[in-house]
Each structure stands twice: as C-alpha cells, then as structure tokens.
C-alpha cells in the first residue's frame, strides 16, 4: 500500500499533540495540530499536570495549532477557573485559526494573549 492511500500519516498530523515543559518557574504547555472535542481532554490533562508542579504561571502555546474548536476554548475557560489564584494562565496565539476565535468569544478578555512564546515569557518573568 502506498503512503498516499494510507490514512495514518494525515490522521497523525491532525491529532493534537501536547507537550509540557518548564521554563524557570513557568510551565509551558505546547499544543500542535487540531484542538477539538477529541483532543481537548489531552490539553485539559496537560494543564492539570502542569499546575501540579506549583508554577508561577501556565502558558498554553497554540503557535503550532491549525484548528481551535470550541472544546479547546472551553478547556481554557475551565483552566482559568480551576487554577490557583497564584498561578497565572496565559495563551500564545497568533493568526486567524487561534487568536481570532479567542478574541471573538471573549477569552482574550479573561486570559492574557501573546503573539509569541518569547513575549509571554518576558511578560511573566518581569
């Protein structure tokens, strides 16, 4: 079977991948691909895991996200409410697939939105 007929590579690219890492006392949850009702639970679990390490902030990096559905935005709203008041939630999103919907539905009014991870880290570390 040729790779053009095998649906696995395109499906793998569509699945939201989530990685958590630490930058100083800030947890960064980087997401790629699609964030929808099937992949939003992975994002939710990653944010919860990041919060367990007592960071000063959790930054959700949507730089590599191609599609952000309402389920993903719902995870952000829930995380904003669930995180300790000492843990700031910020989002990195730039472009029509991510920052535009976050602004349209008002999530950018409750969490800080940055165009790049460097901008978010600089603002949170100051």
TrEMBL record:
It comes from the Bacteria. GO terms for molecular function: anti-sigma factor antagonist activity. Residues 16-124 form the STAS domain. CDD domains: STAS_anti-anti-sigma_factors (cd07043). It comes from Mycolicibacterium neoaurum VKM Ac-1815D. This is Anti-sigma factor antagonist. NCBIfam families: ant_ant_sig. It holds the Pfam family STAS. InterPro entries: Anti-sigma_ant, STAS_dom, STAS_dom_sf. PROSITE patterns: STAS (PS50801). PANTHER family: ANTI-SIGMA FACTOR ANTAGONIST TM_1081-RELATED-RELATED (PTHR33495), ANTI-SIGMA-F FACTOR ANTAGONIST RSFB (PTHR33495:SF13). Belongs to the anti-sigma-factor antagonist family.
């Amino acid at each position: 079977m040729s790779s053009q007929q095998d649906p696995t590579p395109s499906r793998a690219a569509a699945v939201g991948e989530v990685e958590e890492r630490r930058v100083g006392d800030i947890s960064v949850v980087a997401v790629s691909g699609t964030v929808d009702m099937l992949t939003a639970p992975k994002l939710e679990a990653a944010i919860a895991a990041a919060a367990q390490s007592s960071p000063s902030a959790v930054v959700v990096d949507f730089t590599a996200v191609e599609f952000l559905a309402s389920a993903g935005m719902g995870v952000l709203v829930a995380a904003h409410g669930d995180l300790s008041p000492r843990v700031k939630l910020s989002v990195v999103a730039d472009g029509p697939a991510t920052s535009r919907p976050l602004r349209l539905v008002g999530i950018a009014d409750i969490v800080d939105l940055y165009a790049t991870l460097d901008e978010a880290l600089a603002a949170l570390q100051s």
